[in-house]
């Protein structure tokens, strides 16, 4: 069996859709092999996309409840939760129009692979969660851009709109991490960039929106 193509899949045209600093923030670009895997699993792509939007809203809500003394975080997470739930509704409606039933899928290794490195003491715990949130949103944004050239007009238009919102979410998470950290976060960002890169370029057994390359 041939080795999966892990060369980057974002072209100059797709790069133009992305915030200028986003690709630099990520430790690698999405490999071509993942894009091919996604296009071979269009139903799973949409189902797991919907699930990711729901999880993103849940994460924002949990931060709202846990960190009640941080006004800027409360404002940003409230906005983010509403927007992620709207995206969830939009994906479910797209699925319905295409005859795809929403169902539960097992989680990918991606988020847990990042969260296992979260420090336990505050405020380090919150800072790590926010940095991870920035990576999840940045990767989502980058993957939408990778997929857009290969999609039908309706889905491509929708994903193009999501590139803007996910890019804004990435910026908000990173800004909050910088704002709430007691010291510079560059070393911690570099640490999670390497962990995230490992999850993206190594083989995975199940396709998901944030999976690595096919095993």
From TrEMBL:
UniProt xrefs under InterPro entries: Ferritin-like (IPR012347), Ferritin-like_SF (IPR009078), tRNA-Hydrxlase_MiaE (IPR010386)
Cross-referenced Gene3D superfamilies: 1.20.1260.10
GO BP of this protein: tRNA modification
Domain of life per record: Bacteria
Molecular function, one GO term: tRNA 2-(methylsulfanyl)-N(6)-isopentenyladenosine(37) hydroxylase activity
Protein's UniProt name: tRNA-(Ms[2]io[6]A)-hydroxylase
Organism: Billgrantia gudaonensis
Lineage: Bacteria, Pseudomonadati, Pseudomonadota, Gammaproteobacteria, Oceanospirillales
